[in-house]
Amino acid sequence: MDKDFKMVATTISGLEGVLADELRKLGARDVNEAIRSVYFKGDKGFMYKANIALRTAIRILKPIKKSKVFDEEDLYEAIQRIKWERILDVDGTFAVDAVVFSRNFTTNSHYISLKSKDAIADYFMLKYKKRPNVDLKQPDVKIHIHIHKEWLTVSLDSSGDSLHKRGYRSATNIAPINEVLAAGLVLLSGYKGEENFIDPMCGSGTLLIEAAMIANNIPANINRKHFAFENWKDYDEDLYFIIQDSLLKKIRSSHFKIMGFDKAPSAVNKARQNIVNANLEEFIGVHHVNFFNSKKEVFGKTTILFNPPYGERLNINVEEFYKSIGDTLKNGYPNSTAWLITSDFSALKYVGLRTSQRLPIKNGDLDCRFVKYELYEGSKKQKKEEVPE
């Protein structure tokens, strides 16, 4: 039986709590949040499960060495002390990336990754008179170097390509939302597939797809073709398929509506294509509709969640645009909860509705707010007056 070991799941700033919750529900032990990451323990099978199932993780790292380093020479020597032949064949390929937060290292992260690469190559040259090749696109082993103050952590990247690359998105619009962020927003909203879901400005359909996978408990990366751990020396293919099958058996069917609108026919076509790629066309409907001319046409409680254009993305009249969002929600979507993400904090005042939550989150380099509006049948005041004494 495999032993548990420490791992790190990285994520987007603002989603640490969501990721920690996902890990606990999946069965991780010793879960602890950090900045843009969550530490946890699990065995090899759990590492496979985390890669396949986690919605808000960017990558899963397996630390193999931690030591104190004060300069490039210390770094080089620490990396040379690792028995690399246990991890990488001399005829194999590797790549190194680095993240540095230390005053001791005035050089940039790229230089640190090159220095680390040299240490690994020299290790093999000294021992075998031959060195593995570097392959930045599809290496057999991807190594992650993290330096924080005087602490060096060397990890193996079990994911390879970022886990936001789910494998379903072939068509995109201007500035499409990252899949990990999209899933995080859906989970932050509290949506679980037990009510209707509408994205009224759906673009290429990413929020709809992530919502449908959550509603039906479909593993986030089930459409993905490859994970880096499949190249590792200790890869257990039988175990991988046992884990995958166990996750597939937990898929359920949600019978509530999941709908997307967009005023651009090209966006509607792209969203439909991506939904087909994700094998979710039976769960999601996409319609050529201008949200500002729409009203709620589904019965019952509904989550509305969208990523409206920011000033950075499209040339819009911000005041008029956000006022129209507020008017349309207020007049056309009773008995709903609306969430939107924006980097234009001043634009929110034009919505004309009171927010019941404002959560800080990053979208790429942009500081954003994810805000919530409760939409009642009448006004909130009327709602209270209707309650009997």
TrEMBL record:
A Pfam family: UPF0020
Molecular-function GO term, any one: rRNA (guanine-N7-)-methyltransferase activity
CDD domains given in the database record: THUMP_AdoMetMT
InterPro entries: RlmKL-like_Mtase (IPR000241), RlmKL-like_Mtase_CS (IPR053943), RlmL_1st (IPR054170), SAM-dependent_MTases_sf (IPR029063), THUMP_dom (IPR004114)
TM stretches of this protein: none
Gene3D superfamilies: 3.30.2130.30, Vaccinia Virus protein VP39
Span of domain THUMP: 46-158
UniProt keyword annotations, A-Z: Methyltransferase, RNA-binding, Transferase
PANTHER family in alphabetical order: RIBOSOMAL RNA LARGE SUBUNIT METHYLTRANSFERASE K/L, RIBOSOMAL RNA LARGE SUBUNIT METHYLTRANSFERASE K_L
Protein name: Putative N6-adenine-specific DNA methylase
Organism: Tenacibaculum skagerrakense
